[in-house]
Design goal:
Blueprint (H helix, E strand, L loop, with lengths): L1 H11 L2 H35 L10 E4 L2 E2 L5 E3 L2 E3 L1 H41 L2 H9 L4 H26 L4 H15 L1
Antiparallel strand pairs: 1-4, 2-3
């Protein structure tokens, strides 16, 4: 039993589990914020634009309510509340848009960070010191580093092309030529 709890403790304190828990909590709070944005700000504006009736009240009455002579409901109405559905769809679109923008920003930041890292590694500290002694500015040193990174990228592409397997057409041509030689 002690081993079970030790394994559970190890599992629950792993980074992925904690990250997932944080993501769920933040996601729940984010969902509440966007729901409030849609329900309390966007939908009233849309309702105002389409005639002042709240979208959540839009419905298609299947069977109307029946009342007795005193005005009391005898049978409740049966209706499809399609306004609620529209509101939920708008909520989803807002959440999807915000998540998309966040992912775009994170990807852009990561690609920029990768580029900066490669540029920083392209010039060693000793070279940087030597360049400074030669009177080069930081901008000139960055240009040298960028040129080295670009040269390394081009060389890697050339190496990849050299190691690449021949295309199907080229292989078929070689097979045909080999078969011709054997005849």
């Amino acid at each position: 039993m002690k081993k079970f709890f030790l394994e559970f403790k190890k599992f629950i304190t792993r980074g992925n589990v904690v990250d997932l828990a944080v993501a769920v909590i933040v996601g729940g709070a984010f969902g509440k914020i966007t729901t409030s944005l849609v329900n309390d700000i966007l939908m009233p504006l849309i309702s105002l634009a389409v005639g002042g009736v709240g979208i959540e009240d839009w419905k298609w009455v299947i069977t109307p309510a029946t009342y007795d002579s005193a005005g009391n409901v005898v049978t409740a109405e049966s209706a499809l509340y399609y306004g609620n559905f529209i509101q939920t769809v708008v909520n989803f679109i807002v959440i999807a848009l915000v998540v998309f923008v966040i992912v775009k920003i994170v990807n852009k930041a990561n690609s920029g960070l990768g580029e900066l890292t490669s540029i920083a590694r392209a010039v060693t500290i000793e070279e940087r010191i030597q360049f400074k002694k030669e009177g080069k500015t930081n901008k000139e040193i960055r240009t040298i580093a960028k040129q080295r990174v670009e040269k390394a990228r081009l060389e890697a592409e050339e190496q990849k092309k050299a190691n690449a397997k021949p295309a199907t057409e080229q292989l078929l041509t070689e097979i045909r030529d080999l078969l011709k030689d054997k005849q």
